[in-house]
Write a structure and sequence with these properties.
Layout (H helix, E strand, L loop, with lengths): L2 H12 L4 H13 L13 H12 L5 H14 L3 E4 L5 E5 L3 E7 L5 E8 L5 E2 L1 H8 L3 H13 L7 H23 L8 H7 L4 E3 L8 E5 L2 H9 L8 E17 L25 E12 L7 H11 L11 H10 L17
Antiparallel strand pairs: 1-2, 2-3, 3-4, 4-5, 6-7, 7-8, 8-9
Helix pairs in contact: 3-4, 4-6
Protein backbone atom coordinates (compact mmCIF):
# COMPACT_ATOMS: atom_id res chain seq x y z
CA UNK A 1 0.00 0.00 0.00
CA UNK A 2 1.39 3.39 -0.99
CA UNK A 3 1.85 6.15 1.56
CA UNK A 4 -0.80 8.33 -0.09
CA UNK A 5 -3.35 5.50 -0.05
CA UNK A 6 -2.57 4.74 3.59
CA UNK A 7 -2.98 8.39 4.61
CA UNK A 8 -6.27 8.57 2.72
CA UNK A 9 -7.58 5.55 4.64
CA UNK A 10 -6.58 7.16 7.92
CA UNK A 11 -8.34 10.42 7.00
CA UNK A 12 -11.55 8.57 6.09
CA UNK A 13 -11.40 6.57 9.32
CA UNK A 14 -11.01 9.56 11.64
CA UNK A 15 -12.81 12.39 9.80
CA UNK A 16 -16.08 11.60 11.59
CA UNK A 17 -14.45 11.42 15.04
CA UNK A 18 -13.83 14.45 17.28
CA UNK A 19 -10.27 15.75 17.64
CA UNK A 20 -10.29 15.10 21.41
CA UNK A 21 -10.74 11.37 20.80
CA UNK A 22 -7.81 11.26 18.39
CA UNK A 23 -5.70 13.22 20.86
CA UNK A 24 -6.46 10.67 23.60
CA UNK A 25 -5.38 7.87 21.25
CA UNK A 26 -2.06 9.62 20.53
CA UNK A 27 -1.38 10.09 24.26
CA UNK A 28 -2.27 6.44 24.91
CA UNK A 29 0.22 5.24 22.28
CA UNK A 30 2.97 7.47 23.69
CA UNK A 31 2.36 6.31 27.27
CA UNK A 32 2.63 2.59 26.46
CA UNK A 33 5.59 1.08 28.32
CA UNK A 34 8.46 -0.25 26.26
CA UNK A 35 9.32 -3.97 26.55
CA UNK A 36 11.82 -5.31 27.53
CA UNK A 37 12.72 -2.91 30.43
CA UNK A 38 15.87 -1.63 28.72
CA UNK A 39 15.06 -1.84 25.03
CA UNK A 40 17.59 -1.36 22.26
CA UNK A 41 14.86 -1.17 19.61
CA UNK A 42 14.50 2.18 17.83
CA UNK A 43 11.71 4.43 19.13
CA UNK A 44 8.68 5.26 17.04
CA UNK A 45 8.96 8.41 14.85
CA UNK A 46 6.50 10.22 17.13
CA UNK A 47 8.53 9.49 20.29
CA UNK A 48 11.75 10.46 18.49
CA UNK A 49 10.24 13.79 17.45
CA UNK A 50 9.00 14.46 20.99
CA UNK A 51 12.46 13.70 22.37
CA UNK A 52 14.13 16.13 19.94
CA UNK A 53 11.64 18.86 20.84
CA UNK A 54 12.22 18.35 24.58
CA UNK A 55 15.98 18.45 24.10
CA UNK A 56 15.67 21.80 22.32
CA UNK A 57 13.42 23.38 24.98
CA UNK A 58 14.81 25.03 28.08
CA UNK A 59 13.61 23.34 31.28
CA UNK A 60 12.49 26.48 33.08
CA UNK A 61 9.19 25.29 34.50
CA UNK A 62 7.89 22.47 36.66
CA UNK A 63 5.82 21.15 33.75
CA UNK A 64 8.77 20.97 31.33
CA UNK A 65 11.04 19.23 33.87
CA UNK A 66 8.32 16.65 34.63
CA UNK A 67 7.86 16.02 30.91
CA UNK A 68 11.61 15.50 30.50
CA UNK A 69 11.75 13.07 33.43
CA UNK A 70 8.83 11.08 32.03
CA UNK A 71 10.48 10.99 28.60
CA UNK A 72 13.82 9.72 29.98
CA UNK A 73 11.99 7.10 32.06
CA UNK A 74 10.11 5.73 29.06
CA UNK A 75 13.32 5.57 27.01
CA UNK A 76 14.82 3.32 29.71
CA UNK A 77 11.69 1.14 30.00
CA UNK A 78 10.66 2.51 33.41
CA UNK A 79 7.38 3.91 34.71
CA UNK A 80 6.96 7.55 35.79
CA UNK A 81 4.24 8.78 38.16
CA UNK A 82 3.59 12.34 39.34
CA UNK A 83 2.31 12.96 42.87
CA UNK A 84 -1.07 14.69 43.42
CA UNK A 85 0.81 17.83 44.46
CA UNK A 86 2.60 17.82 41.09
CA UNK A 87 6.03 18.39 42.67
CA UNK A 88 7.29 14.80 43.06
CA UNK A 89 8.09 12.39 40.22
CA UNK A 90 8.40 8.68 41.03
CA UNK A 91 10.43 6.64 38.51
CA UNK A 92 9.70 3.00 39.24
CA UNK A 93 10.45 -0.57 38.23
CA UNK A 94 9.59 -3.89 39.85
CA UNK A 95 12.84 -3.85 41.86
CA UNK A 96 13.66 -0.19 42.66
CA UNK A 97 12.29 3.33 42.48
CA UNK A 98 13.65 6.88 42.34
CA UNK A 99 11.91 9.84 43.96
CA UNK A 100 12.60 13.27 42.43
CA UNK A 101 11.39 16.24 44.49
CA UNK A 102 10.97 19.62 42.80
CA UNK A 103 9.91 23.15 43.68
CA UNK A 104 7.00 24.93 42.01
CA UNK A 105 9.45 26.72 39.74
CA UNK A 106 10.98 23.46 38.48
CA UNK A 107 14.20 23.43 40.54
CA UNK A 108 15.24 19.94 41.67
CA UNK A 109 15.38 19.87 45.48
CA UNK A 110 16.23 16.24 46.27
CA UNK A 111 16.57 12.79 44.69
CA UNK A 112 16.15 9.55 46.65
CA UNK A 113 16.73 5.96 45.59
CA UNK A 114 15.29 2.80 47.14
CA UNK A 115 15.95 -0.82 46.18
CA UNK A 116 13.43 -3.55 46.94
CA UNK A 117 13.09 -3.95 50.72
CA UNK A 118 15.44 -1.04 51.51
CA UNK A 119 14.67 2.44 52.88
CA UNK A 120 15.09 5.39 50.48
CA UNK A 121 18.51 7.08 50.61
CA UNK A 122 19.61 10.44 49.22
CA UNK A 123 21.29 9.99 45.82
CA UNK A 124 23.74 12.86 45.30
CA UNK A 125 24.97 11.76 41.86
CA UNK A 126 21.46 11.70 40.38
CA UNK A 127 20.72 15.04 42.07
CA UNK A 128 23.76 16.67 40.47
CA UNK A 129 22.89 15.27 37.02
CA UNK A 130 19.42 16.81 37.19
CA UNK A 131 20.59 20.16 38.58
CA UNK A 132 23.07 20.37 35.71
CA UNK A 133 20.29 19.26 33.32
CA UNK A 134 22.47 16.36 32.20
CA UNK A 135 19.60 14.05 31.31
CA UNK A 136 21.85 11.72 29.30
CA UNK A 137 23.92 10.93 32.41
CA UNK A 138 20.73 10.65 34.47
CA UNK A 139 19.28 8.17 31.98
CA UNK A 140 22.55 6.19 31.86
CA UNK A 141 22.45 5.80 35.65
CA UNK A 142 18.84 4.59 35.49
CA UNK A 143 19.92 2.08 32.84
CA UNK A 144 22.79 0.84 35.05
CA UNK A 145 20.35 0.37 37.94
CA UNK A 146 17.97 -1.60 35.72
CA UNK A 147 20.84 -3.78 34.50
CA UNK A 148 21.48 -4.90 38.10
CA UNK A 149 18.28 -6.91 37.82
CA UNK A 150 18.63 -8.33 34.30
CA UNK A 151 18.64 -11.88 35.65
CA UNK A 152 16.31 -14.59 34.25
CA UNK A 153 13.45 -15.50 36.57
CA UNK A 154 10.90 -13.82 38.81
CA UNK A 155 11.34 -10.94 41.26
CA UNK A 156 12.62 -13.29 43.97
CA UNK A 157 15.44 -14.53 41.70
CA UNK A 158 16.35 -10.96 40.73
CA UNK A 159 16.41 -9.93 44.40
CA UNK A 160 18.75 -12.82 45.25
CA UNK A 161 21.08 -11.68 42.48
CA UNK A 162 21.14 -8.21 44.07
CA UNK A 163 21.82 -9.72 47.54
CA UNK A 164 24.70 -11.74 46.05
CA UNK A 165 26.19 -8.54 44.61
CA UNK A 166 25.91 -6.90 48.04
CA UNK A 167 27.78 -9.84 49.60
CA UNK A 168 30.56 -9.56 47.02
CA UNK A 169 30.84 -5.80 47.55
CA UNK A 170 31.17 -6.27 51.33
CA UNK A 171 33.93 -8.87 50.85
CA UNK A 172 35.82 -6.67 48.39
CA UNK A 173 35.58 -3.72 50.79
CA UNK A 174 36.85 -5.88 53.67
CA UNK A 175 39.81 -6.95 51.52
CA UNK A 176 40.41 -3.30 50.65
CA UNK A 177 40.65 -2.41 54.36
CA UNK A 178 43.09 -5.25 55.22
CA UNK A 179 46.53 -3.88 56.19
CA UNK A 180 45.45 -0.41 55.09
CA UNK A 181 46.91 2.53 57.00
CA UNK A 182 45.25 5.89 57.56
CA UNK A 183 47.72 8.02 55.59
CA UNK A 184 48.10 5.82 52.49
CA UNK A 185 47.54 7.70 49.21
CA UNK A 186 45.55 6.59 46.21
CA UNK A 187 48.54 5.79 43.96
CA UNK A 188 50.01 3.50 46.63
CA UNK A 189 46.66 1.73 46.96
CA UNK A 190 46.54 1.16 43.20
CA UNK A 191 50.09 -0.19 43.04
CA UNK A 192 50.28 -2.21 46.25
CA UNK A 193 46.76 -2.66 47.66
CA UNK A 194 45.11 -6.08 47.70
CA UNK A 195 42.36 -4.91 45.35
CA UNK A 196 43.64 -1.50 44.22
CA UNK A 197 41.82 1.74 44.98
CA UNK A 198 38.17 0.86 45.69
CA UNK A 199 35.19 3.24 45.66
CA UNK A 200 32.05 1.63 47.18
CA UNK A 201 28.69 1.73 45.42
CA UNK A 202 26.75 4.85 46.37
CA UNK A 203 23.30 5.68 45.08
CA UNK A 204 23.26 5.16 41.34
CA UNK A 205 27.05 4.80 40.97
CA UNK A 206 28.27 1.18 40.94
CA UNK A 207 31.34 0.04 42.88
CA UNK A 208 34.50 0.65 40.86
CA UNK A 209 38.10 -0.45 41.32
CA UNK A 210 41.15 1.38 39.99
CA UNK A 211 43.73 -1.40 39.64
CA UNK A 212 46.47 -0.10 37.33
CA UNK A 213 48.29 3.16 36.78
CA UNK A 214 51.18 3.71 34.34
CA UNK A 215 54.67 4.81 35.41
CA UNK A 216 54.15 8.05 33.46
CA UNK A 217 50.97 8.77 35.43
CA UNK A 218 52.77 8.01 38.71
CA UNK A 219 55.45 10.56 37.78
CA UNK A 220 52.78 13.12 36.84
CA UNK A 221 51.10 12.64 40.22
CA UNK A 222 54.44 13.11 42.01
CA UNK A 223 55.27 16.29 40.09
CA UNK A 224 51.73 17.70 40.47
CA UNK A 225 50.35 16.46 43.80
CA UNK A 226 46.57 16.35 43.84
CA UNK A 227 46.23 16.23 40.06
CA UNK A 228 44.30 12.95 40.47
CA UNK A 229 45.44 11.26 37.28
CA UNK A 230 43.10 8.43 36.39
CA UNK A 231 44.35 4.88 35.87
CA UNK A 232 42.53 1.82 34.54
CA UNK A 233 39.21 1.11 36.28
CA UNK A 234 36.57 -1.61 36.28
CA UNK A 235 32.97 -1.58 37.52
CA UNK A 236 31.74 -4.42 39.75
CA UNK A 237 28.28 -5.73 38.87
CA UNK A 238 26.21 -8.88 38.27
CA UNK A 239 24.73 -10.12 34.98
CA UNK A 240 22.39 -12.87 33.85
CA UNK A 241 23.80 -16.05 32.24
CA UNK A 242 22.50 -19.12 30.42
CA UNK A 243 23.90 -21.50 33.06
CA UNK A 244 23.59 -21.70 36.86
CA UNK A 245 26.39 -20.46 39.15
CA UNK A 246 26.77 -20.75 42.91
CA UNK A 247 26.78 -17.21 44.32
CA UNK A 248 27.11 -16.15 48.00
CA UNK A 249 24.12 -14.67 49.83
CA UNK A 250 26.23 -13.32 52.71
CA UNK A 251 29.85 -12.10 53.06
CA UNK A 252 32.48 -14.85 53.21
CA UNK A 253 35.22 -12.71 54.79
CA UNK A 254 35.23 -11.03 58.20
CA UNK A 255 36.09 -7.35 58.62
CA UNK A 256 39.69 -8.05 59.67
CA UNK A 257 39.96 -11.73 58.87
CA UNK A 258 43.16 -12.95 57.25
CA UNK A 259 45.08 -16.21 57.16
CA UNK A 260 48.53 -16.88 58.58
CA UNK A 261 50.14 -15.94 55.26
CA UNK A 262 48.43 -12.53 55.28
CA UNK A 263 46.05 -13.42 52.47
CA UNK A 264 42.28 -13.22 52.95
CA UNK A 265 40.73 -16.33 54.49
CA UNK A 266 37.26 -17.02 53.11
CA UNK A 267 34.50 -19.26 54.45
CA UNK A 268 33.61 -22.23 52.21
CA UNK A 269 30.76 -21.61 49.78
CA UNK A 270 28.29 -24.02 51.39
CA UNK A 271 24.63 -24.53 50.49
CA UNK A 272 23.63 -22.50 53.56
CA UNK A 273 25.70 -19.50 52.45
CA UNK A 274 24.99 -19.62 48.72
CA UNK A 275 22.30 -20.03 46.07
CA UNK A 276 22.33 -21.34 42.49
CA UNK A 277 21.39 -18.51 40.12
CA UNK A 278 21.50 -17.97 36.34
CA UNK A 279 23.92 -15.12 36.96
CA UNK A 280 27.61 -14.33 37.40
CA UNK A 281 29.71 -11.52 38.82
CA UNK A 282 31.10 -9.23 36.13
CA UNK A 283 33.93 -6.71 35.88
CA UNK A 284 33.18 -4.09 33.21
CA UNK A 285 35.84 -1.81 31.78
CA UNK A 286 35.03 1.87 31.27
CA UNK A 287 36.75 1.68 27.89
CA UNK A 288 37.61 -1.27 25.61
CA UNK A 289 40.97 -2.86 26.42
CA UNK A 290 42.99 -4.31 23.47
CA UNK A 291 44.24 -7.84 24.23
CA UNK A 292 45.80 -10.52 22.05
CA UNK A 293 43.83 -13.72 21.49
CA UNK A 294 46.66 -15.81 22.98
CA UNK A 295 46.55 -13.73 26.19
CA UNK A 296 42.78 -14.15 26.46
CA UNK A 297 43.07 -17.92 26.02
CA UNK A 298 45.79 -18.04 28.71
CA UNK A 299 43.67 -16.09 31.22
CA UNK A 300 40.63 -18.30 30.61
CA UNK A 301 42.75 -21.45 30.95
CA UNK A 302 44.45 -20.40 34.20
CA UNK A 303 41.42 -18.92 35.96
CA UNK A 304 38.51 -20.81 34.46
CA UNK A 305 36.77 -17.43 33.98
CA UNK A 306 35.22 -16.74 30.60
CA UNK A 307 35.85 -13.30 29.11
CA UNK A 308 32.76 -11.92 27.39
CA UNK A 309 32.03 -8.99 25.10
CA UNK A 310 34.94 -9.80 22.76
CA UNK A 311 35.23 -8.18 19.36
CA UNK A 312 37.93 -8.86 16.79
CA UNK A 313 39.71 -5.84 15.31
CA UNK A 314 42.95 -5.25 13.34
CA UNK A 315 45.76 -3.82 15.45
CA UNK A 316 46.38 -0.89 13.09
CA UNK A 317 42.68 0.08 13.30
CA UNK A 318 42.83 0.15 17.10
CA UNK A 319 45.94 2.34 16.97
CA UNK A 320 44.29 4.82 14.56
CA UNK A 321 41.09 4.99 16.66
CA UNK A 322 43.11 5.54 19.85
CA UNK A 323 45.20 8.30 18.26
CA UNK A 324 42.26 10.15 16.71
CA UNK A 325 39.54 9.60 19.32
CA UNK A 326 39.72 13.22 20.50
CA UNK A 327 39.70 14.63 16.96
CA UNK A 328 37.01 12.48 15.37
CA UNK A 329 33.90 11.16 17.10
CA UNK A 330 32.65 9.11 14.14
CA UNK A 331 33.51 5.47 13.55
CA UNK A 332 36.81 5.27 11.73
CA UNK A 333 37.40 2.84 8.88
CA UNK A 334 40.90 1.90 7.79
CA UNK A 335 39.91 -0.46 4.95
CA UNK A 336 41.44 1.86 2.33
CA UNK A 337 44.10 3.40 4.57
CA UNK A 338 47.75 3.47 3.56
CA UNK A 339 50.51 3.10 6.19
CA UNK A 340 54.25 3.80 5.95
CA UNK A 341 56.77 1.78 7.96
Amino acid sequence: VSTNALMQKLRLKYQQRPWTETLKLVHFCMDKRLRPPVSKAPDSPLCSCMEKIQRALNDRSLFSVMNRLESVSKQKGLNAHVSPSGTICYITSDMFYTEVQLEKGGKVVDVKLAHLGEAPVVCDDLLQHLRMKNYDAFGKTLEDLSNLYQIPGNSEMKAKGYFALQALEKDLYSMYLLDRTQDVNRVTEVLHGKVGHLVPRTGGALMNIEFYITPYQVLEEELNPGSQVCGTKVVVTVAGTDTLHKLPLSPLLGDSQAGDDGHPDFLPLTDELSVDLPAAFVLKFHQPIPMSSSRIEEIQRLTGIQIGGLKLAPLHELIVQSALKEKCSEDLSTDKACFFV
